[in-house]
Each structure stands twice: as structure tokens, then as C-alpha cells.
Amino acid sequence: MIEPLSGLQITRANQPRTYSSATRRIAAGFGLGLLLPIAYLANAVPAQAEIRFVSTIEGDHFVYLPPQPAQRILLVAHGTPRKDEPAKINARRYLKRWLKLADRHSLIVISPVFDEARFGSRSQGYGGYRGLFGKHIGADTFIDRLVGKYARQTKSGNGRFLLYGHSAGGQFAVRYTVRYPDKVEKTVVSASGRYSYPTTKVAWPYGAGPFRRTISWDKGKVKNTETVEPRLENYAKAVPKIAIVIGAKDTKPQPERPGHVGRTRVELARSWASQMNRLAAKQKKPGRIKVTIAPGIGHDSRKLMPYAAKILLGD
Fold first, then answer.
1. What percent of the chain has pLDDT over 70?
2. Domain ranges of the chain
3. Interatomic CA distance for residues 117 and 173, integer angstroms
4. Helix, strand, coil proportions of the chain in percent (round to 5)?
5. Across the strands, what pairs with 225?
6. Fold of the domain built from segment(s) 50-313
């Protein structure tokens, strides 16, 4: 009996690779030693009904596969980690909140680890994953690869997914959806403090204008030239896919950013939704972005999550 693979770790080329004991036994059984092709490892998927942590050089992630055949994928984007904890803990916490709903709705839940080193979760990388940037690969490309890896286990297999992000993760969710509206089924943005406004007068990531910049990582040791050319047509197409949830008490003034209208997260959510809805109407696209204001709640991902779940799943 072949045991499920676990503890996969893909390291840099020309460096030793670490395999799980199960992988070693499989290799030995086929007389392969440790000459398993890296593609085999990359395509291996976890056993069902448990949380698994998978690490690669490009980035890490947690994944949960339900005990029954999966219907869809939910991708959960965490916010900025606390100073006293690694992003890995934050990503796992966000995933665990969705487990009961994952079982009820037959969801594969993916929670990428947007850490400081590779995705600028705190300070480097010009906002890092918030603007879809990354040190080795862009945060958008990273997500596409994760979804592609698990999509074949869903009923449809088409790769479209549900997207949820809170705070900094909400920024990621906004920007991913306005860049790639056809890749998502529905997006819930929870308490984002920044948006990409639908105006070409302001450059990405705060607007829809073209962006070209050299972004530094590791105090300048790594430099990537990033080019982004947003399309207003995609912003309009994203409108029926997006909903916003935010706490009524989330009223801390936010730093001023180009093109942004409003100072608090509530004000910014309303102004961005209004501009997006006007753009969709102008381009004769269907739908409107709805902003749900949750009474008595501040900037709290746990308390806002039920509102997000109701929009995404009807719960």
C-alpha cells in the first residue's frame, strides 16, 4: 500500500532536496533511490480531511481537502501578521476558521503564506503581495500555480475559485480580481485600507495607470523590474464578482494614498465601490459592488468572517 506523501520540500536547484519518509519508501519500492523527478513531487497532493503544510522555494501554503469529493476552491488571503508572530501562524489561523464550512460545502481551502522574506508582508517589496508582487515570483503567479495544482481535484476542474482576503489580504483580493476577473467566481474584500481605483490617472497599485518600477528585496540584494498594464475593461468586468464587508467601528484614519477618496476604511470602501459601479454602468457591464457595514465591529477578521461566508456561500 502506498502511503500519501507528506512534508514535501522543494529547494533551490543544485541543492539537496528533502523528501518525506513515505516518499523514500515509494522510491525504494520502485528501485529509484532518490531519483524521483521533481515534477512528481510538485504535482503530489495531500491526503484528504486534514490540514497540510507545503513548502517550496517560491512560497509556502496550507491546504485543506474535505473528506468528500471537492466541488470548489476557496483561497484565503491573510492580513499583515502581528510583529510577534510569523506569517505561517497567521495563514494557518485564517484557514482553520473555514474548516466547518469547507466540509459542509465540499471546499478545498488554500491559505498561502505571504511572509516578509518572499512576499513583503510587513515592509519590503513596495507593498509586496498587496500589489501582487513577490521576490521569486509575483503573488498572482504564485496563486495561479496553487489553484492549478488543486483544481483537478474539484468537480469542474476549471480553475475558477472563490477568493477571500482581510485587510492587507483584502488589498491582494481587490487587485487580483481587477486584474483577472475571469479567474474568480466571487471575491469578498474584508476591511481593506487601500484599493486600486478605476482611473488611469493614478498608477498601479493605487489606480489603473501603467506601472514600471524596479523593486528591491533583501535590502537591495535582489532587484526585480515590475511592469503592470491594467485594463479598465477588467475593472468593469470585476464589478459583479466583488463584495465588501467592513466593520462600522473601523474608523481609524488611513494614510493618504494617490487617487483615494476618504480617510477611514469605511469611507474608502464606499468611494471605491461607487467609482467601480459608475465605471461598470458606463461600459454597460452588469452588477454592482455592495458594501456591507457590520454593526458594532471594528477591524476584526474573526468577527467579519461570518459576513464574508454568507456572501460567498450563503451561510
1. 85
2. 1-44, 50-313
3. 20
4. 35, 20, 45
5. 214
6. Rossmann fold (3.40.50)
Bin 191: left if φ > 0, else alpha if -120 < ψ < 50, else beta.
left
pLDDT digits (tens, 9 = 90+) for 254-291: 999 999 999 999 999 999 999 999 999 999 999 999 99
Question: Residue 139 in contact with residue 172, Cβ under 8 Å?
Answer: yes
Assigned C-alpha cell, 196: 486600486
What is the DSSP-derived secondary structure letter of residue 154?
B
Mark residue 76 as left, alpha or beta (left: phi above 0; alpha: psi -120 to 50; beta: remaining).
Answer: beta
Q: Which amino acid is at 162?
A: L
Q: How confident is the prediction for the chain on average, in pLDDT?
A: 87
Tens digits of per-residue pLDDT, 206-243?
Answer: 999 999 999 999 999 999 999 999 999 999 999 999 99
**Cα distances (Å, whole numbers) of residue 252 to 65, 79, 248, 273:** 37, 16, 11, 19
Whether the CB-CB separation of 36 and 19 falls below 8 Å is answered with yes
- Name the DSSP letter for residue 70: B
- Cell triple for residue 20? 518525506
Q: Can you list the positions of beta strands (E) in 146-294?
A: 161-166, 184-190, 211-217, 222-228, 242-247, 290-294
**All cell numbers assigned to 116:** 516578509
